[in-house]
Design goal:
Strand content: under 5%
Number of helices: 1
Radius of gyration: 28 Å
Shape: rod-shaped
Distance between the termini: 86 Å
Helix content: 40-55%
Number of domains: 1
């Protein structure tokens, strides 16, 4: 025997959208939030594409700088440990 589920407050089979009036899963510009059209994938305009590229470059620079900072600290600590072992404190 087939059973149907009752949906409280709505019709069964109805499509529900996000509360702000946009369809759930609609594509939006990653920079400004505007809707994407046609073949646009992540940005709605050249300005937003350039902004997104600059943001990604800055994030990559920050990660690189963090990695270099960690490596420099480790190298300094290794040199200090070696100096202590050799008995030649600075």
């Amino acid at each position: 025997m087939r059973q149907t589920l009752s949906v409280p407050g709505g019709r069964s089979g109805a499509v529900q959208t996000a509360g702000d009036g946009t369809v759930a899963g609609s594509r939006q510009c990653e920079v400004c939030g505007a809707g994407l059209q046609g073949g646009q994938r992540v940005a709605c305009s050249e300005k937003c594409r350039a902004t997104r590229w600059r943001q990604r470059q800055e994030t990559a620079r920050q990660h690189r700088d963090d990695e270099l900072r960690i490596l420099a600290l480790a190298a300094r600590q290794a040199l200090e440990a070696l100096e202590r072992r050799l008995g030649n404190p600075k």
